[in-house]
Amino acid sequence: MARILILGGGFGGVVAARRLATALGDQHDITLVSRNRLFVFYPALVRLAFGKCERDDVSFDLRHTMLERRVNFIEAEVARINPDERKVIIAHGEVEGQLPYDYLVFALGRRLATERVTGFYEHAHHLLNVDKALQFGKALAAFHRGHAVIGECPGARLPVPVYETAFALSRLLQDRGEKVQSRITIVSPDPSSLQLDGSQASLALQQSLASHGIEFVRDFPVNRVAPGVLLAANGSTINFNLVMLVPPFQGAPAASHLGITNDESYLNVNSTMRVVGVERMYAVGDCVNFSGPKLGHMAVRQAEVAATNLINEIEGREPSSNYVHEMRLVIDEGGADSLYMRKELWLDEPASVRQGRFWSWAKLVQEKYWRATHS
Ligand SMILES: Cc1cc2nc3c(=O)[nH]c(=O)nc-3n(C[C@H](O)[C@H](O)[C@H](O)COP(=O)(O)OP(=O)(O)OC[C@H]3O[C@@H](n4cnc5c(N)ncnc54)[C@H](O)[C@@H]3O)c2cc1C
User: Which ligand 1 atom sits closest to the C-alpha of 13?
Assistant: First the structure.
């Protein structure tokens, strides 16, 4: 009986656990470790901030779900891993000390490197966890006039909630009759584009932003937030009354001491999702060193590939599944300008783009489907 340890109870960890439990049944011991017993459906956090759903709608209890799949669940904080001795060091939680494993799936997601932007913690809102999204929601309720600035910091790698927040705020101000006394600006560190590669997507997005009167300021690499003013590394400044920024990302720190990550702590993996230079270890999701944005559907696909190859490895077969680095995203504009985009990031092909109210609806349906099939 092999001991399979999955670290992280997000999209990557939950999908890997499900696939492994379904294929392996009781033959092997599968355990998932996560710092929180709740799974969070992050794409819903913009809707949470705008009061379109409740706290309970965006999360579910992992312990219960894992138990149903006969996967052990441990609520604990992973400090670091020791692949030479095949052990995971737990800092605190339901267990402490070391957890041995035969096979490891690393799915600890991203670390928010807010310390890279001076004043971020004190003066900026973000919506990358449930509490922060609710706090931002209170600030939105109190915002009735002035300049709202929304954007990504350098290294943020998550454009979707930036655009969705700007569109939702535009609609909110319109509904309250406060649009004329307010201004919305998106700031981007990217000098050349809307960060969504593919000219058709950029054009469609530019038109939607223009029709909402949302300004777009490129080449604005935020490096400091002071009360009421954003400062960029190139000396530019923008005053604000309300600010929401996606902070810089890094890979999860639990593996950063091992020489198996890039400079930003993202784990180096090959297309089978095996970690390069380490035996019996797979990594999936936001924590891996792949180009482009960090997206939930990528974590899901990577987890399926990793689980398939892990099963092969346990059963003495060669890896049979390879990950293709594809970006699929929906930017929900709340109406007919909602945008779907698909692009294979390892190929130099143009993105395919669709636009329409359908995509706003489809995103909501996908969320409900996810909950129904995974909670
Ligand atoms: C506001 C927002 C909107 C988004 N919108 C979209 C979208 O529209 N479409 C899309 O595809 N993607 C979207 N994403 C991105 C998507 O949510 C992520 O790509 C996805 O969550 C990555 O999955 P993951 O499993 O790698 O990491 P996560 O989902 O972050 O899971 C990591 C897990 O590891 C646990 N963990 C972390 N560190 C430790 C530790 N030291 N010890 C124990 N446990 C730990 C965490 O608690 C968590 O359970 C959005 C993200 C946000 C924040």
Answer: 25
Q: Which contacts (CB < 8 Å, 24+ apart) does range 278-282 have?
A: 278/83, 279/83, 280/83, 280/86, 280/101, 280/102, 280/103, 280/104, 280/313, 281/81, 281/83, 281/103, 281/104, 281/106, 282/16, 282/103, 282/104, 282/105, 282/106, 282/306, 282/309, 282/310
Residue 60, ligand 1, Cβ within 6 A: no
Query: Mean of the pLDDT values across residues 134-157?
Result: 97
- Best mutation site among 34, 37, 77, 369 for ligand 1, i.e. most ligand atoms within 8 A of its Cβ? 34
Is the CB of 45 inside a 6 Å radius of any atom of ligand 1?
yes
State the pLDDT at residue 147: 98
Q: Is the CB of 17 under 6 A from ligand 1?
A: no
Q: Tell me how far apart the alpha carbons of residues 179 and 170 are, in angstroms, rounded to a whole number.
A: 7
Average pLDDT, the chain: 94
pTM: 0.96
Q: Tokens for 236, please give them.
A: 């530019």
Average pLDDT over residues 78-94: 95
Question: How remote is the CA of residue 156 from the centroid of ligand 1, in Å?
Answer: 13
Q: What is the Cα–Cα distance from 371 to 57, expressed in whole angstroms?
A: 9
Q: Is the CB of 161 under 6 A from ligand 1?
A: yes
Task: Determine the 3-state secondary structure of 218 from DSSP.
Answer: coil
What gap in Å lies between CA 65 and CA 90, rounded to an integer?
22
For the CA of 8, the nearest atom of ligand 1: 34
- What 3-state DSSP class applies to 344? strand
Residues 67/157, Cβ–Cβ less than 8 Å: no
Average pLDDT over residues 82-110: 95
